[in-house]
Amino acid sequence: MAVILSSWSENYGDPSESKDLLTQFKGAAVAIASDEKIALLGAIQSLFEGSMYTFVFLWTPALSPNDEEIPHGFIFATFMLASMLGSSLASRLLARTSLKVESYMQIVFVISSASLLLPIVTNILIEPSKVKGGSISFGGCVQLLGFCTFEACVGIFWPSIMKMRSQYIPEEARSTIMNFFRIPLNIFVCIVLYNVNAFPITVMFGMCSIFLFVASILQRRLMVIADKSKTEDWASMKDKNMEAEPLNI
């Protein structure tokens, strides 16, 4: 350690590439405004992550509305297992060249939206228990199944969104652009946490479900734009090749 401290100089990187924070965010704003695909992808990630972070704070009161004694550790481990299974499924989906990530992610968002509707559905169809304490109720078990489904969708989401980031967002500005979208995301999460007791839990889950459904619509729009862009690029390349061919007389 002494030799390292005395002989190694600090690596500060290339000073020509260093930019101040304001310049980086200006560049990110220009990239977002000039490319609809980047704007759509950022909005999709913000909507999903906002719902996911809100879910983290809501699943415990949703499963124990009457102070039921629920096995928090076991449930959390089940969530992690579901997320791992989702990631494993995503790796298989991404390995299939015939299947577009933009296509199956629409289904993932719809399933996520439906799974977070279960607390509302169970509250309407299943009469809530009036007894304090006890073990998890039947409605709680149904919700737990939906929450595990949502966690599986979370597991599919992360590798899939990374794949789309690499396709649509330039590498040199990728981190800045994604941080740009995390500003409203973090503001939203803070507002939700501050007002978590101001609204019924069903309203909060309904809001998350709407966000996820909107994400599926935006994902559909992203797929349409991406396909259109690829078609235009292919047509342009074909025209250039035809112009480059010599005339046969």
Automatic annotation (TrEMBL):
Membrane topology of this protein: Multi-pass membrane protein
Keyword Cytoplasm listed: no
Keywords: Cell membrane, Ion transport, Membrane, Transmembrane, Transmembrane helix, Transport
Transmembrane segments: 38-62, 74-95, 107-125, 137-158, 179-195, 201-218
SUPFAM superfamilies given in the database record: MFS general substrate transporter
Gene Ontology cellular component annotations, sorted alphabetically: plasma membrane
Zinc among keywords: no
GO BP term, example: monoatomic ion transport
Places the protein is found: Cell membrane
Molecular function GO terms recorded: molybdate ion transmembrane transporter activity
InterPro entries given in the database record: MFS_trans_sf (IPR036259), MOT2/MFSD5 (IPR008509)
Pfam families xrefs: MFS_5
Function: Mediates high-affinity intracellular uptake of the rare oligo-element molybdenum.
Protein known as: Molybdate-anion transporter
Provenance organism: Vitis rotundifolia
Lineage: Eukaryota, Viridiplantae, Streptophyta, Embryophyta, Tracheophyta
